[in-house]
């Protein structure tokens, strides 16, 4: 399987200037190619092929006086910028025709030099290399210092140099890695994700929500106020914006590190992991949006999925419409309603349930039932579901009569 390994790089002043030049040239080539195709479409001309576009906006442009400075950067960087444009067009056309799974894709848009995140990509044709001294050699940029937090498992096929909004530089390598199966474990766990507790396990263990964004709110408010007091276009505003970006980068890094540690622990201790497939994009449009995005459920579930695949564990996503909170894990009776303010309830069979623990137990039972029925792996099932959605299949359950004390039709379904 292919994995991406990210490392922090520290270019010097001359190398930062060369990288800025490469970022700008890649952006110009991308925008020139997009403009050429848009002009051809407006004039009623045929779609410009990839080869013709490369000759026009790269080869011929280098020989013109207006774009002669494109020759100062590696040609691979320019070709990869066009490759990104061609990929964006192919995805857009495939989405229009219904061949591409998932949500509809918008047409490509122009890249702005005001974007705080910039990236360029070098493939093997660029002949980038890792020197004996541990530096990353990039054509027409030089040998860049890298902080190797771990060794690469194999020869990388490409490297992407990224400058994020906080002004940090990263080298991202794509490498082929072999699976590393862990020793068999008798454990199985169902996971119910939430806000009061980030995760509740079917074993009864509750993992506290770190609320990383909430904890950093005081510092974020301070730097944001300082930014709002600066004058537009001033040097102090640039400095203040960078402080805001660095504060948010620390929050994102802390959340990612916490999710990595928790997902690794669950994968190591359990042979099978079952988790609900939450509609995070929908929950992100509610009054709980800030807390939902602060939790980072999607990032955590994605880590569980790829780590399970890499280490030989079973990973199953449960249908988001499965009423895990409303089903009694003892007698399988389904409650009529389960508003979010009810944290514990007693079934007609006399068993008292903690809402989250009961949901996690039901997720575990449903996951075992799906595996016993021979369901396909989670990734294949998701692709099939996206194909059905793209072809007009139903993505919502049938309408239900709302209870008198509910604001929606099936508010307590999960």
What labels describe this entry?
414 residues, alpha+beta, seven-stranded antiparallel beta sheet, five-stranded mixed beta sheet, 17% strand, disordered C terminus
Number of helices: 11
Strands of the widest sheet, in order across it, are: 2-6-7-1-5-4-3
Q: So what's the overall shape?
A: elongated
Strand content: 15-25%
The parts where pLDDT drops under 50 for at least 5 residues are 377-414
Mean pLDDT: 88
Strands, total number: 14
Gyration radius (Cα, Å) is 25 Å
Which percent range fits the helix content? 40-55%
Instruction: Quickly give the structural class.
Output: alpha+beta
Termini separation (Å)?
Answer: 33 Å
What is the H/E string?
EHHHEEEEEEEEEHHHEHHHEEEHH
Q: Report the biggest beta sheet as strand number plus sense, adding barrel if it closes.
A: 7 strands, antiparallel
Question: Could you explain the architecture of this structure?
Answer:
By secondary structure, this protein is an alpha+beta fold. It is 42% helix and 17% strand. The protein has eleven helices and 14 strands. The strands form three sheets. A seven-stranded antiparallel sheet has the order 2-6-7-1-5-4-3. The radius of gyration is 25 Å and the shape is elongated.
Could you outline the blueprint of secondary structure elements for this entry?
Blueprint: E1 2-10, H1 13-42, H2 50-63, H3 75-97, E2 118-123, E3 129-130, E4 136-138, E5 142-147, E6 158-163, E7 169-176, E8 188-193, E9 197-201, E10 206-208, H4 212-215, H5 217-228, H6 235-269, E11 272-276, H7 280-283, H8 289-295, H9 297-310, E12 314-318, E13 344-346, E14 352-354, H10 355-372, H11 378-390
Parallel strand pairs: 8-11, 11-12
Antiparallel strand pairs: 1-5, 1-7, 2-6, 3-4, 4-5, 6-7, 8-9, 9-10, 13-14
Helix pairs in contact: 1-2, 1-3, 2-3, 5-6, 6-9
């Amino acid at each position: 399987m292919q994995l991406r390994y990210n490392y922090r790089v520290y270019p010097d002043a001359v190398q930062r200037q060369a990288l800025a030049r490469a970022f700008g040239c890649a952006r110009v080539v991308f925008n020139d190619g997009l403009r050429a195709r848009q002009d051809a479409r407006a004039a009623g001309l045929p779609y410009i092929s990839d080869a013709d576009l490369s000759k026009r906006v790269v080869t011929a442009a280098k020989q013109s006086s207006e774009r002669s400075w494109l020759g100062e950067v590696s040609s691979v960087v320019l070709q990869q910028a066009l490759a990104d444009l061609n990929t964006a067009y192919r995805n857009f056309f495939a989405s229009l025709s219904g061949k591409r799974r998932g949500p509809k894709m918008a047409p490509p848009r122009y890249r702005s030099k005001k974007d705080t995140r910039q990236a360029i990509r070098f493939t093997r044709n660029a002949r980038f290399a890792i020197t004996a001294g541990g530096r990353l050699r990039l054509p027409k940029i030089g040998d860049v210092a890298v902080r190797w937090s771990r060794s690469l498992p194999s020869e990388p096929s490409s490297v992407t140099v990224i400058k994020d909004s906080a002004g940090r530089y990263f080298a991202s390598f794509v490498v082929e890695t072999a699976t590393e199966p862990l020793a068999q474990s008798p454990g199985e766990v169902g996971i119910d994700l939430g806000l009061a507790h980030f995760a509740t396990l079917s074993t009864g263990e509750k993992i506290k929500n770190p609320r990383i964004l909430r904890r950093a709110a005081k510092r974020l408010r301070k730097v944001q106020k300082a930014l709002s007091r600066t004058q537009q276009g001033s040097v102090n505003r640039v400095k203040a914006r960078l402080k805001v970006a660095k504060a948010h980068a620390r929050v994102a890094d802390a959340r990612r590190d916490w999710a990595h540690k928790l997902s690794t622990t669950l994968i190591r201790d359990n042979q099978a992991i079952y988790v609900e497939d939450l509609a995070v994009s929908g929950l992100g449009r509610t009054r709980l949006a800030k807390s939902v995005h602060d939790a980072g459920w999607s990032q955590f579930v994605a880590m569980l999925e790829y780590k399970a695949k890499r280490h030989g564990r079973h990973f199953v996503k449960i249908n988001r419409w499965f009423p895990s909170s409303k089903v009694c894990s003892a007698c399988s009776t389904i409650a009529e309603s389960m508003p979010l303010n009810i944290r514990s309830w007693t079934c007609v069979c006399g068993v008292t349930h903690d809402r989250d623990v009961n949901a996690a137990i039901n997720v575990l039972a449903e996951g075992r039932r799906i595996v016993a029925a021979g369901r396909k792996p989670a990734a294949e099932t998701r692709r099939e579901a996206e194909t059905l959605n793209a072809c007009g299949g139903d993505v919502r359950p049938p309408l239900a009569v709302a209870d008198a004390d509910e604001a929606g039709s099936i508010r307590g379904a999960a």
